[in-house]
Amino acid sequence: MFYCKKTARLTFEVADVMLQRTRPARSRNIIAVAETKSKLQKKSNVNQNILHKRLSDYKIKFNLDREKLMVKRIKNTWERLGYLKAASLYTVAALITGFLVYGSVIAADVHFAKEALVNGKTVGVIKNTSNFEMLVEDMRKSLSTTLGKEVSPIGKPVYILRLVFGKSLTGEYALRQNVLSAFDDVEEAYAVYVNDSLICAALSEDIVKNVLDKIKSQFSEDDVNAEIGFVENISIRKEFIPVGYVRSADGVYAALTSPLEGQKTYAVTANDTIWGIANKFAMSVDEIYCLNKDLNDIIHEGDEIIINKSEPLVRVQSKYIYKGEKAIPYETDEVQDFDLQSGKKTVVTAGVEGKKYVVEEVVKQNGEVIETNVISEEILSQPVAATVKVGMKKSLSSVATTGRLSRPVYGTISSRFGYRARGFHSGLDIAAPTGTPITAADGGTVNFSGWNGGYGYLVRIDHGGGFETYYGHCSAMLVSVGDKVSKGDIIAKVGNTGNSTGPHCHFEVRVNGVAQNPSNYLN
Ligand SMILES: [Zn+2]
């Protein structure tokens, strides 16, 4: 721009110099005219005659006047010519300046833009008025949707043409905010954004901050040094928003703790399978079971299946250092005994859990451990392996097995078979109150009844043909090794022993020692 001004001035100076050159010529002309005038006056004095005095006088006067007129004409013509020259020079200068200014304008990213005014207030500097009006109308429509009522249009915008730098155009966010502020159904509030999506707003920043603290406090840790924060990026912005978003503290709390999506269900059709449905919605069979805790393996036409995950909108993450003792599970060595009846097991030496002192970093999300990073570990006592005799003698009496298993406990399925956040889950967890009877899933012989590390109190039934069922975390065992049981007999009671987070029965199905998905055997 500076260069441009300078150039323009320079151009005018050049034009001026050119005019200066023409000026002496013009003043010379004036001197010439003046000389002509005096010469003519002398000539008139010579021509004095008494007789023809009047006539001469008249003639002289006439000639004089004619000369004067001519001189005047010449003078006028010269002056006009001078002005014309000056004018044309100024025009050329102006044109050159114009081109230079235009060039500089293009180079400096300067454009013609329009200042848009709504109700006498500037809302922004824009380029395209029809785009602007479309934006205003779009915002009115979305505002109407948000508020659930027709919002009346804002006043007709007024535009003022301006020459601006490219960067001087009003940004999208500011433009939207200014347009929004022109609507009656909008107010300035503290908007809460979760990962950049507007969730709700409150009239004071403290309302939002208190709600966030309340959510965090629900997952507080005993460790005062625990770092507690949100997994999601939460921001509070003071801005103009539709009044429909403004909530009380309870409303903000509800908005932030509600599930991310409302649950969607799918109605089963005649030829559907769980696998097929999972495939259709790009989910795993496991995810379907997770969402549908009471889902039976046999689905029927018309059944409603929940098909989308619903996670809370914001998750609290806590991170702290755990220092303390932990048990080390023991292993079980099995020794084949050909004198012992097949399916029977006797404990030769009981296992003893070891102990270790650990320092580990624990990461939790909404109270659930998602990560454990061991920092240091010191073994205090080594575990002692248990030794168990396994009967190999073929049984003479055949066990009445039906081949189809019944559910051992009636309750809620709290975890399915397969890979979980904490690793592979080898069975099916059925949650039920402590003391709820556990029944044999099929007929067979009890081959284990006692404590077994993480399983807590465990009952195992041998159904023959390498087929076994396990019932873990029991509070009481009602059968002993070698007992013959029929399908449906009460064998134990639900408990919370061993590695368990609440009363449930860990039900496992094994074929030749390999854990199977119990869902494939239940009828
Ligand atoms: Zn389990």
In short:
It is built from eight helices and 28 strands. The protein is of the alpha+beta class. The structure holds zinc ion.
Could you explain the architecture of this structure?
- This protein has 523 residues and is of the alpha+beta class.
- It folds into six domains: 2-107, no CATH class; 113-184, no CATH class; 190-257, no CATH class; 265-306, Membrane-bound Lytic Murein Transglycosylase D, Chain A (Roll); 318-393, Resuscitation-promoting factor rpfb fold, CATH 2.20.230.10; 397-523, Distorted Sandwich (Glucose Permease (Domain IIA)), CATH 2.70.70.10.
- It has eight helices and 28 strands.
- It has helices at residues 2-46, 53-107, 129-147, 172-181, 205-217, 249-257, 274-280, 285-291, and strands spanning 110-118, 121-126, 158-165, 186-194, 197-202, 227-230, 234-242, 265-267, 304-306, 316-328, 332-341, 345-349, 354-365, 368-381, 386-393, 412-415, 418-420, 423-425, 428-431, 437-439, 444-451, 457-464, 467-474, 476-477, 484-485, 490-493, 504-511, 514-516.
